[in-house]
Amino acid sequence: VKDKSRPMKSHENLLLLMEALEFASYRLKFEKTKNDEPYLNHLIQVCSLLSTIGEVKDIDILRASILYDLVGRSNVKPVDIHLRFGPRTYAIVRKLNLEKSFSNNKEVVFQESYAGLNEAANMIKLADLVANVEMMVSCPPPGWDIERRKIFLEWSAKNINDLKGTCPQLEEYYHCIYTCDVEEEMKYINVSKISA
């Protein structure tokens, strides 16, 4: 199947990304993260990690990284994303949400027709995990004691390890967070590192 990814190379694509941000900001205006920050901040961080650390230039992946959580956190329906942002962005968002609530076989067949769809979804999953680890280390949620943070970081390490090879730059950045922050500031927590 022909790869229909669209590298981010123009002012037009920047406008497409800004459209996704505006769309998400309106629909998530009341949503908060675990540490009571606007949830949109988390999605912006995921997109930023992909574009800066991961060097992702594919506009559909970047837009999907802003939009993927809207389906479960707002009244946005998948069809809204399809109509507004096109079939490939929609396909990536659907792929990321399949395990949550979608089971229509026709939708799955439609998604799988796009080359690199699994890889695109996995990159967003990885960036999401790395953003959560960074948040947990730099600004842990109020009321989360050491044991709860340890469990979360161990769970994250396992999931990041499952995505090994998805994006070496993001994996290296995760290791940097681990060695510079987790080991330094939480050295008494024994969190399993991703195997080399």
Shape: globular
Terminal Cα separation, in Å? Answer: 33 Å
* Helix segment tally: 10
Proportion in β-strands: under 5%
For the biggest sheet, the summary is: none
Give the uncertain stretches in residue-range form. Answer: 102-106, 191-196
Number of strands: 0
Précis, in short:
This protein is mostly helical. It has helices at 11-27, 39-53, 59-67, 70-73, 78-85, 87-101, 105-112, 117-138, 146-162, 168-185.
Key terms:
196 residues; mainly alpha; disordered C terminus; 0% strand; 10 helices; single chain; globular
Provide structural commentary.
- The protein is globular, with a radius of gyration of 17 Å.
- The chain contains 10 helices and no strands.
- The model is unreliable at 102-106 and 191-196 (pLDDT under 50).
- Helices cover 68% and strands 0% of the residues.
Question: What's the structural blueprint in terms of helices and strands?
Answer:
Layout: H1 11-27, H2 39-53, H3 59-67, H4 70-73, H5 78-85, H6 87-101, H7 105-112, H8 117-138, H9 146-162, H10 168-185
Helix pairs in contact: 1-3, 2-3, 2-8, 3-6, 3-8, 5-6, 6-7, 6-8, 8-9, 8-10
